Amino acid sequence: MAARTPELDPAALPLGLAPRTVFVTGKGGVGKSTVAAALALAWRDAGARTLLVELEGQASAAALLSPKKIGYEPVPLGEHLCGIRITMAEALREYVRLRLKVKLVADRLVGNPIIDQFAQAAPGFRDLLILGKLWWLATEKDSRGHRKWDAIVVDSPATGHGLGLLGMAGTIARMFPVGPIAAQAKAVDEYVRDAARVGIVLVALPEELPVTETLELREELASRGIDVAAEVLNGLLIDRFTGAESKRVEGLLDDAGTSLDPGVRHALETVVWEHTRCSDQAAERERLEAGIGHGVCVLPHMFVPQLGREHVASLARWLAPGGQDVLLAQLAGATDGPAAAAAVHAAGGAS
Amino acid sequence: MSATKPPRRRQGDGTRALSKRLHRLDVLLVCGSGGVGKTSIAAALALDEAMNGRRVCVLTIDPARRLAQAMGLDALDDREREVTLPPGAAPGGSLHGLMLDPKTALDRLVAETVTTTEEQERIYANRVYQQVASSSAGMQEYMALARLFELDRGGRFDLIVVDTPPAAHARELLDSPQRILRFLEGRSLRWFLKPGARMGRVGLRAIGGSNGPILGILSKVTGAEMIRDTTEFFEAMQGIFGSISDRIRVVERMFASPSTGFLSVTSPERESVDQAVTFWELLEERQYCYVGTVVNRVEPEAPPSMATPDELTGIDGIDESLAARISAAQQDHAALAGRDRSRLDELAEATGSALTISVPRLARVVNDLDGLRALAPYLAE
After folding, report:
1. Least confident stretch, A20-24, B189-193, B241-245, B371-375
2. Cβ contact (<8 Å) for B329 and A212?
3. CA distance A106 to chain B (A)
4. Which of A72, A274, B296, B344 is the most exposed place for a label (fewest CB within 10 A)?
5. Distance from C-alpha of B324 to C-alpha of B341, rounded to nearest angstrom
C-alpha cells in the first residue's frame, strides 16, 4: 500500500456519499457487480483508500477492474484500491484462530466434519462470520493508527439472500444473549446499524419488477432499522429520438408495408423500439422516484458487446457529481437532447 | 407497433421439439441466474401447456412476488390458486400458481408430522427453529422440494413447473436432498443428539471419545449456549426427521426420473451463458434429463446490409441529423445482434444435443397473461 494518504475531494464524491462501508445489492441481473466496481473506482478517484469486496458464490466484481486474481488477503487493483474475496472457510479459520490464538488447533478444527456441519447447521453462523470479517476490515488500523480503509464496497448477494445477511447480526444477538458469539454479534449489529459507517446502495433497472422489488426492499430495510444510503438506476437508455421523430418513423413503417428494403426497415424498427423502451424506462424511473420521495442516481446503458475495464471507468465518471449533471440534463431532454444523447452513446463516458 | 419479428425458422425445429419434450414430462424445473426472465419463461410455458389441455401447476420459491404479478394474481401464498385461462384453451386444461412462504411451510410440516400439540409448541418455541424458519437461506430449497413432493403425489396435476431460485443456488437445489440426507443420517447429527451435548461446556468436556476435545474447543469458540440451543433444536425436530428423510428420497428419485426435465434460462450475457453450460455439464454428469436452454432477450438478427445515412436521408420526413442518429442506433443494435448470434452458437455447440431456443427482446416487459401468451410462439408451436 502506498504510504501517502490521498487527499479527499468532497466535490468529487460519487452518489454524494462520504466514504463508508456500502453493500451494493438489488435484484439479480441488475448490474450489482458493475455498479460496485464503478463505485469503488469513483471513491478511489475522489481520494478515498478503497477496498472492493467480493463474497463467495458471487460474480467477480474485481475482474471488471483488473486481471489480477484476488483472494482472502487484499490485492492491489490500482493506486489506493484493493480487492478481496471472502470465503466461508477462510473466515471460519480466521475467526477460530482469533478466538483460540493457537494456529495449529484452528487449522485442525477447520476441516473437521463436525465443525463444518456445525457451521453449516448453526443458523446464521455463516453470515455472521462474513459480517464479522467486514466489521474487522472496517475497523482495521494501519501502522500509524489510521483507518486502513476509508471506503469498503461489498458486492452483495441478490436481494432475497442479501436481506438475510444484513439482518443476521441482530437476530443472532437476540438469539444468543451471552457468550463469545453474542459479543461479536452485538458489535457487528451496532456497526451494521450505524448509518454514518454503513449503508446500502440499491441497484435497480428501469423495469417494472426491479423497480417494485427495490421499493419493497427499501421498506423492509427501513423496518429493520437499516439505512439505504443511495439508489442507483442502471441501464437507462438516453433517447436519441424525440417523440415526434418516432411517430414519423412509425408512420413511414405503416405506409410502406412490405415494400421497404430490409436494411431500411430494420433501421426504422430500431428507432421505434428504442423510443418505446425509453418512454417505458422514463415511466419506471418516475415511479421509483415517486416511491422513494427523491431523485435517484442514474447510469446509462452501454452499447457494448462485453463490458470492459474502460467501460467501468466511464461508469465511475458518470457516478461523480459532474457526470450525473450531464446525464440528468440529457434524460430531462436538454435543448440539444438527441444530439447530446448521440454523444453519450458514442463516447460511453463523461469528459 | 412492436418491432419484434416472428420466431426465426432457424429455431423452428427446436421449439417444436421443446413442446414435444414437455409432453413427456411430469415435472419441469426451470433454472437460471437472476434477472434473465426465468419467472416469465416458466409461467409462459406453464400457461402454454395449460392452454393445450394439461392440468398444470407452477411453483415458485423465488422470494420476490414476481410470479403473482406476471400471472395477474393479487397474491400467491402457500396454497395453490387457480389462474383463469384466456379464451381458446383446450378442454381439460387448467393452471394453478403457488408461491412458497418458507415460514408457514415449515410450520405446516411440523403441524402435519408432529402429533401432540405439546410437542408442536416445544418446536415452535425453540429459538433456533424460529431462526431457521424465518431465514431464507437454505430452507427455501428444502421447502420447495417437500412441496413438490406433495403436489406430485396428489395426482391433481399433469405437469408441475418449478421456478427455482437463481443459478448460484441451482447446484444447491440439486444437492440439497443429498446434503440434508447426509446431515440427518450422519454422525454429526447423532452427535448433537447425544445426551451430554446439551449440558453446556462442563458437560461437553466430560464426554469421552474422539469428539471430546473438539466439543470443548467448539464451545470455547461459539459459546456453550449456541451449542445447547442447536442441540435442543435437533432433539425437538427428531420426531419429524423420519418423514423429512422419506420425502427427500422421493424427491431424489424424482430428479433422476426420465419424466422430470430441467430447462435452463439464460440471457445472452457472457456470465449467464457460461453458467448455463456449467449447469448442463452438471446434469450430464448425473444423467438427469436436460431439456434445453432458453436464451432470453436476444437481439434480433440484423439484415445483411444496413441502411446508409444517405439512403435514409432520401426518405420523406427524415433529415440529415435524424438519418445519422438512426444509422448509429442501427449499428449499435447490429453489433449486439452479432454478439448474441455467436453466443447462441457457442451455447449450442457446448451443450450437444440439448435444445437451444432463442426468445427475442421485446420492447415491452412481460407483466400479464397477454404478455405471457405472446412468448408462447417463441417457446412452443
Report:
1. B189-193
2. no
3. 9
4. A72
5. 26
Q: Does A175 sit within 8 Å of B128, measured CB to CB?
A: yes
CA distance B104 to B377: 37
Q: Which of B225, B272, B338 has the CB atom closest to A176's CB atom?
A: B225
For chain B, list the domains and their CATH numbers: 9-375 (3.40.50.300)
DSSP class of A61: S
- Going A300 to A306 to A307 to A308, the CA torsion angle's sign is negative
Domains of chain A, by residue range, sit at 18-242+294-347
Cβ distance A164 to B137 less than 8 Å, yes or no, reads: yes
Which helix (H) or strand (E) covers residue B375, if one does? helix B369-379
3 state DSSP class of A153? strand
Q: Distances in Å between the alpha carbon of B262 and those of B16, B142, B161, B174? A: 17, 18, 10, 11
Residues of B in contact with A99 (CB under 8 A): 220-221
CATH of domain A18-242+294-347: 3.40.50.300
Rounded to whole angstroms, the Cα distance separating B338 from A210 reads 27
* Of residues B381 and B17, more confidently modeled: B17
- The set of residues, in sequence order, having a beta carbon less than 8 Å from that of A173 and lying 6+ positions away, is A182, A185, A186, A189
**From the candidates A54, A245, A264, A274, which should be mutated to test the interface with B, based on the most B CB atoms within 10 A?**
A264
* Interchain contact, B307 vs A261, CB within 8 Å: yes
Radius of gyration of chain B (CA): 26
Backbone angles phi, psi at A39, to 5 degrees: -65, -40
Quote the CA–CA distance of B197 and B199 in Å, as a whole number.
6
Nearest to A37 by CA among A233, A321, A312, A231: A312
DSSP string, B192-261: HTSGGGGG-HHHHHH--STTHHHHHHHHHHH-HHHHHHHHHHHHHHHHHHHHHHHHHHHHHHHHHSTTEE
**Strand ranges for B61-129 from DSSP E:** 81-83, 94-99
* Separation of alpha carbons B119 and A16, rounded Å: 54
Picking from A344, A298, A327, A318, the residue whose alpha carbon sits closest to that of residue A45 is: A318
What does the pLDDT look like over B229-247, one tens digit per residue? 777 777 777 767 777 777 7
pLDDT in tens, A92-151: 888 877 777 666 666 666 666 666 666 665 656 777 788 888 888 998 888 888 889 999
Angstrom distance (rounded) from CA A16 to CA B209: 59
Determine contact, residues A51/A63, Cβ cutoff 8 Å: no
